[in-house]
Amino acid sequence: LRFARMNNIPLYGINVEQTLKKKVKEKGWFNISKSERDGIRNPASPSDAYLEMLASTYSLHGHHGASTDGKKSKELDLDKLKKDSGFQRFVQGQQLWDRAMAHGIETLVKAEPKRQVVAIMGSGHIMNGFGVPHQLADLGVKNVATLIPWEQEYECEMLTSDFASAVYGMPTLPKNGFSGKQKLGVHIEPAKKGVKISRVIDESLAQAAGLVAGDILVEMAGIKIKRVIEVIDIVRKMQAGTWLPIVVLRGDDKMNIVAKFPLIKVE
Fold first, then answer.
1. Rg over CA atoms, the chain
2. What is the 3-state secondary structure (H, E, C) of 96-109?
3. Residue 173, pLDDT score
4. pTM to 2 decimals?
5. SS3 state at 146
6. Hey, which of 127, 179, 184, 199 would disulfide with 240, CB 3.0 to 4.6 Å?
7. What is the mean pLDDT of each run of 10 residues along the chain (267 residues)?
8. How far apart are CA 60 and CA 45, in angstroms?
9. CA 217 to CA 191: how far, in whole Å?
10. 167-199 as b/e, with b when 16 or more CB fall inside 10 Å?
11. What is the pLDDT at residue 170?
């Protein structure tokens, strides 16, 4: 989200209103009048595989099929659960989320077909193509790819060809492993058109990004640069593992450069 704001990338909310979610939980989707549905059409029917996944979540929340200590029971009778009104409302609530987010994506895709839309949501909404991808297919939205973080506690059996288009590993981070205040690795001084880099420190982030002595910093994180203190404040506010877009003047050329701040502090 920070990267999007820095680079002036439009952000849109695609989630459902909490009031509608509450009504579905209490009454069920089909007992909600069309005027109260915020324009959301009936979701495509879920597959049995998706219902099985939702049944596991339902049981872990202390509903039907859960033991007294909140652990999942060994056996889940899906046929029996399908007739349970509480489970039906639970599924309808989940599908409301899926369909609402799919509608939001569909609207953006149809408004600007050539533009890439990146939707951020919980993994449960996209695993195995069950949730939002299933609803997008029903809405006629094609060319959909899913990317899911792979947590170390996941069982390897989950990693099937249908799990996602791609996964990326999440490392176990050491305690106190995150960097504190960030450093770009430059000496700077005032200049007429911005802030001038007088020296780039060897093996620094600035050097890795391609900054050189003589560059004039004119914009950082989407902010026009006029004073040295502005550069210092922006760099100090950067979080470990994030990217900083920079616009520099090098002679008569304006260049776009990205400084990448590491996630782990290196001693």
1. 25
2. HHHHHHHHHHHHHH
3. 54
4. 0.66
5. coil
6. 179
7. 78 87 84 87 90 83 47 61 84 90 94 92 92 95 92 78 88 54 90 93 94 96 91 88 91 93 63
8. 23
9. 9
10. beeeeeeeeeeebeebebbbebeebeebbbbee
11. 67
Distances (CA, A) of 207 to 180, 211, 215, 220, 236: 20, 6, 12, 16, 18
CB-based contacts of 197, cutoff 8 Å, min separation 6:
186, 187, 188, 206, 211, 212, 213, 214, 215, 216, 217, 248
* Rounded alpha-carbon distances, angstroms, from residue 242 to 116, 140, 205, 233: 21, 35, 12, 16
Q: Tokens 């899926």 correspond to what residue? A: 98
Tokens of 257: 């450069």
What is the distance between the terminal CA atoms of the chain, rounded to a whole angstrom?
A: 29
| Contact call for residues 244 and 238 (beta carbons, < 8 A) | yes
> Is 218 strand, coil or helix?
strand
Residue 73 has a pLDDT of: 44
Are 16 and 97 within 8 A, CB to CB?
yes
Give the model's pLDDT for residue 156.
82
pLDDT for the residue 239:
80
Extract the tokens encoding 125. Answer: 């909404």
Comparing C-alpha atoms, which of 118, 133, 121 is closest to residue 164? 133
What pLDDT does 178 receive? 52
